[in-house]
Design a protein that fits this description.
Elements (H helix, E strand, L loop, with lengths): L1 E2 L3 E2 L11 H20 L4 E4 L7 E4 L15 E4 L2 E4 L3
Antiparallel strand pairs: 1-2, 3-4, 3-5, 5-6
Length: 86
């Protein structure tokens, strides 16, 4: 999944013992769970200079931006920006 100019997220079970059907089911469940949290503003998104300086996400987001997020970052949730750097 790519969230333009912010970050991306790899969805892979990394379990070689899963069947193809089990892998597909696992990936589908993970994507749906992530999107559910994203649309509920439970995923903090951040980027520096529209992603050119880096970006990422944190889950769960409970309303307070962690000190792990660079001070120069713009922060967002799905419904809109939280902080514009600068």
């Amino acid at each position: 999944m790519l969230i333009e100019n912010v970050t991306h997220h790899h969805v892979n079970p990394y379990d070689e013992n899963l069947s193809e059907d089990d892998r597909c089911h696992w990936i589908s469940e993970e994507v749906v769970a992530f999107l559910h949290a994203l649309f509920a503003d439970q995923v903090l998104l951040w980027s520096i200079e529209n992603g050119r300086g880096g970006g990422g996400w944190q889950l769960p987001f409970e309303g307070k931006v962690s000190t792990d997020i660079p001070a120069a970052a713009n922060t967002y949730v799905w419904s809109g920006p939280l902080k514009k750097a600068g």
